[in-house]
Amino acid sequence: MQDSPNIFDTPLSGLNWAEWIDKVDDQILENGFVEYLGAKHLAAFVAGKPILLVTFESLDQVQSLSGSGQPVGWHLAKALGWSHMAMVSDGDTWFRDPRVFGFFDRLIDDGFFEGFDQVLFYGAGAAGYAAAAFSVASPGARVLSVQPQATLDPRVAEWDDRFLHMRRTSFAQRYGYAPDMLDAAEAAFVLYDPDIRLDAMHAALFTRPNVTKYRMRHLGANMEKSLMDMSLLLRIIAQMSSGKLNDANLSKLFRARRKHVPYLKRVLLRLERDERLYLNARWAQWVLRNSPGPRFRKSLRFAYDKAEARGIDMPKREFG
Q1: Which of 69, 59, 65, 68 is CA-nearest to residue 89?
Q2: What value does the mean pLDDT take over residues 291-313?
Q3: Is residue 35 located within the same domain as residue 132?
Q4: Do 186 and 90 sit in the same domain of this protein?
Q5: How far apart are CA 25 and CA 35, in angstroms?
Q6: 304 in a structural domain
Q7: 91 shares its domain with 178
Q8: Helix 277-290 to helix 294-310 angle, to the nearest 10 degrees?
Q9: Which CATH number do you get for residue 186?
Q10: Pick from 257, 275, 295: which residue ends a domain?
């Protein structure tokens, strides 16, 4: 990796699927390998230290989360010198493709994962499902899965009506039911927002002795972006690698939400929606003590006006 330092400095943003994979192929040539897995999937390996991070991402995720258009694992590989395998899809496919299955079969047969001291798997959403499902290829791996689906098999998850176009895709073949695939993992972590009901229902299916489920309330439908914006995702993966990730340390890391404006606004919207005027006022004033915010000031005025009209006692008013 030291021989070609420009790998992680090459801009890949704004490229379509064909352009992106061609450029990645050019950059990785002397540092690892690229394997095309049909029309919609790519495996790109960059060699480094004997810690391997396997990330599952769609090109849309890569382009939206990284200003450089690079896989999220490249940032860790660059900072820590880790080896990295990027499994990238053109769109959300849940990586349900026989060629992807065959690729992991070959890695197992070749003893690829045995050449590393530690193997980590990561993904979010559809890719979070894949990270859990394919982690079985490396027994003893550690897995971080953000907002994963357990399966989209209608016989199990007919209540999830968000991905009807996947109903004809088989989730009963190999690498199928993600929670079962985690049985071989040393430890797995499932992060989800309990206010997103269908995500919470999928998370419940991951209940296993080696799985830590952690609730990150009010992070919204795109938790991965929120974690990136708060500079938490890479820190969580690093703690998972060091064996320090647990409920207590996740709670410490999650304190960063107190300065994350989208989170603060989501809590405010919830309080407004439920007409919890006293808490609405306390929340808005707490935020305003730390930073200016027209949205919170407006909500504060609304809460006090409505409380006065209803004769409801309110906390001492600190802002006009």
Answers
A1: 59
A2: 92
A3: yes
A4: yes
A5: 9
A6: yes
A7: yes
A8: 150
A9: 3.40.50
A10: 257
Last residue of a domain, one of 235, 257, 279: 257
Separation CA 233–CA 269 (nearest Å): 25
Check whether residue 231 and residue 281 sit in a common domain. Answer: no
Longest Cα–Cα distance of the chain, Å, equals 73
* Confidence label for 293 from pLDDT (cuts 50, 70 and 90): confident
297 vs 78, residue with greater confidence: 297
pTM of the model as a whole: 0.93
7-16 CB burial, b ≥16 within 10 A, e <16: bbeeebeebe
284 and 207 share one domain = no
In a domain, 267, yes or no: yes
| pLDDT for residue 132 | 98
| pLDDT tens digits, one per residue of 90-128 | 999 999 999 999 999 999 999 999 999 999 999 999 999
E strands along the chain, which residues?
32-36, 41-46, 49-58, 82-89, 118-124, 142-146, 187-192, 211-215
Residue ranges making up the domain that contains 9: 5-257
Query: Who's near 90: CB < 8 A, 6+ residues apart?
Result: 17, 39, 40, 41, 58, 59
Instruction: For residue 76, give the amino acid letter.
Output: L
Q: Are 256 and 231 in contact (CB under 8 A)?
A: yes
148 close to 179: Cβ distance less than 8 angstroms: no
Q: In this structure, what token pair is assigned to residue 112? A: 């690829």
Mean of pLDDT values over 143-156? 97
Judged against a pLDDT cut of 80, whether residue 29 lies above it is answered with no
Let me know: does 223 contact 193? Beta carbons within 8 Å. Answer: yes
Total domains, the chain: 2
Find tokens 């949205």 and name the residue.
295
| 81 and 182 co-located in one domain | yes
